[in-house]
Amino acid sequence: MRLSLEARAKPARIMVWASPLIAAVGSIIGVSILFAVLGRDPLAALNILFVAPLETIDGLAELGLKATPLLLCAIGIAVGCRAEVWNIGAEGQFTIGAICGGGVALAFGGNDSWWLLPVMLLAGIAGGMAWAAIPAFLKTRFNAHEILTTLMLTYVSIQLLGYLVHGPWKDPQGYSFPQTRQFEADALLPMLIEGTRLHIGVVFALASVPLGSILLGRTMLGFQIRTVGAAPAAARYAGFSRNRIVWVCLLLSGGMAGLAGICEVAGPDGQLTPVISPGYGFAAIIVAFLGRLNPIGILFSSALMALLYLGGEGLQVSMQLPIAVTGTIQGMLLFFLLAADVLINYRVRLKPSRAAAGATGHA
Amino acid sequence: MTTTRRSLLQASLALPAAAMLPRAAGAAAPFNVGFVYVAPIGDAGWTFQHELGRKALVAALGDSVKTSFVENVPEEGADAERVIRKLATDGNGLIFTTSFGFMEPTLKVAKQFPKVKFEHCTGYKRAANLATYSARFYEGRYLTGLIAGRMTKSNVIGYVAAFPIPEVVQGINAVLLAARTVNPNVTIKVVFVSSWFDPGKERAAADTLISQGADVVMHHTDSSAVVQGAEEKGVWSFGYDSDMLRFGPKTNLTSVTMHWGDYYIERTKAAIAGTWKSGDVWGGLKTGMVKLGPLNAAVPDAVKAEVAAVQAKIEAGTLVPFAGPIKDQKGAMKVAAGKSLSDGEILGMDWFAEGVQGKLG
Lengths: 363, 361
Prior knowledge:
heterodimer, A: mainly alpha, two-stranded antiparallel sheet, B: about 350 residues, alpha/beta, Rossmann fold, 7-stranded mixed beta sheet, 6-stranded parallel beta sheet, 15 strands, about 40% helix, about 20% strand
């Protein structure tokens, strides 16, 4: 007998729900074997990985904090992907958003002005949009592919940030270390839960989920976005402007990445340093696809990704496991999730193999 | 009244110590020490040396301590604070955070956990329960500069550096000043790679420097790529952080190595005994935090003797690496003859000495 994959006539509805479960069971078995081989109690390790981070208010707050930038960036990216506009450079737009909003904080902080935080947030959004406008222009004017331009602009943005914190924005009291001074208290985002680091940015991130769903599912613009992506010829025939959709998608995802950037520096960071994102803009691409480019799916996938980071640290601290193990587990989970997705569009068939067909009894 | 108040005071002072005592006394309840590492441990480099320190601590104190560590914690962003807090809530009484970028997060967590003791490596912000420690790596650099000055034929030293921060600038200037004491024609070419750990970029920078005439290369980054590249191209190299002789058996002249074990043992013992105090320790050759690794057989005996003599003088305090006269790149007198830089001036060093080619900032 041999296994073969057969394309389904249409995606199986039941598998849309069953595949995450299959993936969960598969990865729990795989991870348990790994723990057992390493001589750790699999149940205790699974508890540390998936349950312990969610048991305390502080843990939940940290989960929200970690998921916020992923969620904001991923929803913007997903909207673009639905129109086949591939914004790979959310990391760069995130950085520029942080620079623009952070610049406002450094310039006007400390005066207790009521308008400071709103202006910082708007500056962050505007910065991200402006950075994404460059690839939009290059795409619509010169047909330069946005995968290249958005990615390359990411490196430009990181160099720009480096120039600022090594140069004009360097903290004069900082022994010439490359970092700005700490933002004043009035330039920091308000906390949602006292004693934790969960700031108001998580509200923006959560709000983007229904807004993204409505945009894609209930509006003419969303219909155009989906049509341009799924059936470009039909979109052209219907008179939808592809260039307009490119602009909308890049500005939207750039603005959301910029918002994530300013929320990060005005939230937990409180200053600008040479690198402000440990790769949120890139991780968000995984999150977007893991959530099947659907805002509600992305809500779950960003939470899962955040949980994996937290649980991975827990394993290091509580079980003295090296980081390679947590990386292996993260990879295993993502592998099972994506592999199980195959079942949505394909069915597994057992076929008698050519050799077995003639022979007898050899199972 | 007075006695009561005093005894109350004493009682409150004794409390944290008393809380430690049962832990210290019985092997069943060890004292927990946490470590935060910026990179994966790997097999050489900055984090690897801290891991050796942790292992030395475990070897010295045995069952009376239990250590844990988290590796590859990004300096940037929100992760470090969470990791440090996790270690604090997990019952660690002493936590070492081993990279400059952990300064603000360590300070924040230290405020939230006044009973837990923190130690931050290479920073300058302290609190009652947050001490800082680092070492004068430039003293080791000075010795390598001496060897480089003697060994170079092209009089060009190539220097692969991470970022133009004071610690890096100190090393570059120290090498130049030492090399010029034995060879006044030496110049240093610097390439900044904007990363602490990027073997590809480090190697590319080393190749560039070698093609520009450098016949001695050294690096202030965390991988051994430069040493390996030099071995292939047949030019001299110096290692950093760890002994890197095995990565360049023919051409690696020696390495500036770092040793944290003694410090970790001493501070952990103090924390267990209740005598731990915040402060700042800036070790060096004398305290053994910085050492020169084994010298390559290619280093002539006369140079070996010279290096040993200079090392003895630095340890005795009779030779100071940053003693005048020192001119900066523009030729302006930065340190007058007979003067030397204060620790504060060294810690904030943001200028290159005359003879260094490359731009700062």
